[in-house]
Amino acid sequence: MSTAAxxxxxxxxxxxxxxxxxxxxxxxxxxxxxxxxxxxxxxxxHVLSLxxxxxxxxxDHVLDAARAAVADNDGAPAEGLLSLREAVARRVxxxxxxxxxxxxxxxxxxxxxHALYVIFTSLLExxxxxxxxSPHYYYQGCIYLAGGVxxxxxxHQRDGWNWDIDHLESLISPRTKLLLINTPVNPTGHVAxxxxxxxxxDLAARHGLLVISDEAFDHVIYDNRAHLxxxxxxxxxxxxxxxxxxxxxxxxxxxRIGFIVGPSSLMPTFRKVLEWxxxxxxxxxxxxxxxxxxxxxxxxxxxxARFQHCRDLMLHALSTDSGVTFTAPEGGPFIFLNTxxxxxxxxxxxxxxxxxxxxxxxxxxxxxxxxHLRLPFGGEDNDVQEAxxxxxxxxxxxxxxxxxx
Length: 405
Ligand SMILES: Cc1ncc(COP(=O)(O)O)c(C=O)c1O
Fold this sequence. Notes:
The protein is α/β, with parallel strands linked by helices. Helices cover 40% and strands 12% of the residues. The protein is globular.
């Protein structure tokens, strides 16, 4: 983690003011991109609008449920509205194949990141290791805040980012407390296969490990693939904590509702940690989420279709001699662009893409790579096609001899 954070002295002495946990935190990966884009736009430069989650409104029945809830002064209990937990139970049974008890095995959170914070804070002692594949979503901040240490099992572009279970197993130590998986993988777009999930399940059973399964993008899956949940596998219900989010799968990006599904023995402690953290989650957003989960689902399927369309536009634009390499995403809204073929490094290419071509990408460091940029590809057709064309132009320019100076 960064040690560059400012470090004011404690007015009562020479010790630093901030805790070492806070001092050593990096900024979340996307923040610098958002700041740079805002700065450029304010200075009058046009930057293409690309999105890593649905940027449109959910349908009227969802908004109507929220409107109706505004007048409801009852609020929601810390574990979440029972009506929402019942809707979650129906949804995870229907779509994830997980049978669950809404009263005892579900907790509503302020979306997936908050769910992860609650889980890590509840389960990790200082120095406990969380084992996960890399490249990875930026979990490290949440893990560090809870005192834990991420341990990364590298996956490789040359293998299509497939999971190497033997390598994962070789990294298990006496300090390993949790196994964390994510499918579809942000940022690589890999979607876990049935064989990979079964191998992780077998490994978890052999070593007596709890598995956290982050399925935040479970509705963003392409080419008729199926999203599979490890918690649905035989014997896994009692050792899996599944994390889902309405921010992506139900176009409720700013509403911040997600949920944890897991063994009833864990939920009272998760609920207690959540309660000391935020008391409870916003009830208006919970009513919207309930309507989204329970109502007609055709618009939900369109989310995946829309992202697949954008992915295909981007792949088409990048397909012929684009100067960068990548693996076509099987799910999720990002392409992980490999800049190794260029004569400039990742940082320089990212800066040129943004400043000279108006294409925003995130640096790969926070995702575990010094060689890749994370490119969101959701957006209006014109912007997506234009972004692909500009990346190609920038990459080809960065492979010419003059770029090597
Ligand atoms: C894999 C993954 N997990 C968790 C999150 C956090 O999601 P939320 O916005 O629901 O907190 C994200 C956000 O993009 C993600 O990609």
